Amino acid sequence: MEQYEFFKLFHDLSIEDYSLLTKNLKSRNFKKGDLITAPGQIQKELFFVKSGVQMSCFETQRNTHVIAFTYSPNLCAIPDSFSFQRPSSYYLSCLTDSEMEYLSYDDLQTLFDQSHQIERLFRKMTEAVLAGVLTRHVELHSLKMEERYKKFCQRSPHLLQLVPHKYIASYLGIDPTNFSKLYNNVKF
């Protein structure tokens, strides 16, 4: 999906505002395993995923706890670190080679001052992220593991081939052994 069409899913952005937004984008490539942001770092850029898969997570003594996956055409960041310019509590890393475009926090704030339409676009995109987080929270606490697995497969089936299954299991709150059984036995 073209980036402009993706933005229009959230807000009817004019071509002029889209051009204003995209003329400031810079490109960056990451390799599989590269860290974008580590705990304690401030996320200074907002990324627009062109290709690849990224993961945000935190570590405890025993486990990696996956918060989210990002992929094209979505945005990629640690939202609270970027929005409030405070140190991250999480890792943001690349699970595959990734190509992204980005804007700095300061450049985005300048764009907000220049265009209320761009500001409205990002507000609506932020609202969609919040709604998605709340939906996921409800699913984790109300659905059985097979139902969570099926919903994931409906939303992001391509990740089953791109992401190590232990990370998907963590994201879904499922033991890796049970995830393996679901993967091998449940058709969606």
TrEMBL record:
InterPro entries named among the record's database cross-references: cNMP-bd_dom, cNMP-bd_dom_sf, RmlC-like_jellyroll
Domain Cyclic nucleotide-binding: 9-52
Transmembrane feature ranges: none
Name the UniProt record assigns to this protein: Crp/Fnr family transcriptional regulator
